[in-house]
Amino acid sequence: MKDEPLVLGIESTAHTFGVGVATPSRVLASADYSYQPKSGGIHPREAAEHHSRVAGRALAEALREAGVSVEDVDAVAVALGPGMGPCLRVGATLARYLAVRYAKPLVPVNHAVAHVEIARFTTGFEDPLVVYIAGGNTIITTFVEGRYRVFGETLDIPLGNCLDTFAREVGLGFPGTPKVEELAAKGSKLLELPYVVKGQDLQFSGLLTKALRLVREGERLEDVCYSLVETAYSMLVEVAERALALTGKREVTLTGGVARSRLLCEKLEKMAELHGAVFKPVEPRFAGDNGAMIAYTGALAYASGVTIRVEDSRIRPMWRLDQVDVPWRAGGFRKP
Ligand code: FE2
Q: Ligand 1 centroid to 5 CA: how many Å?
């Protein structure tokens, strides 16, 4: 008899197709394949075609890495959203097939909740304030009364998208954040850029437009990169700081693709220290999208009795993390 449920998880919300295997206390495998757009941003249909091509390989690789077969797993978890419809459909189709073919329960996972849970898992934090920054999301969240509540988010483009688009437009390639930060380290002149914080929410599109204009007008790229990251990260830290002061949490973590940013980590760490809180980012290999975070969150959810009927498992491109009950945390609850 196994003590803990073993769960297979499938991620396909955006550019990455991943399959992971996990229990509520262990990550056993993660096989992840990312689609690289030839030019421009993610083309949803091209990404979906990529996912279809690599799905079988990712599944086989994850099972091999974990040393298990599909028969061995107790449930199949899948990220049903938020994300791009064509991409989500690939993961959902594979998950439904496995659930039916092998008679396994299906577990719905919210991709944003999974970024939060994998950060809690790899940091060992119990109850952190979570700054979730990626190409597709910018959210400051923490657990309050049964759900992850939003304490600030972007009203237009996500921060990761702002940096990636800037990098692409000025010819730095993808992913843009590390390259922008590299150049920013060589910048020295702080140029004035729109600093847009509205209450607890953020806007980055004006910042992007102005930064691109400054490059066109001949400002040094290093100085524009420096000003861009200083402005954007300061906006974010301001909102995170108010959320921390309001909720009184003692831990702060950073998760999502931009969690590998050394500069943002430094800023958040300083801010946390000022409030007597500790800061630690998600483990770098689980910062970007991956199958393990879906398997792990699926394992937590499944252990709390969360499943969905195959016929109800529609994709949810706009699924917000604050719509998800989190019964696996103390104070969590499930609607009857
Ligand atoms: Fe993500």
A: 24
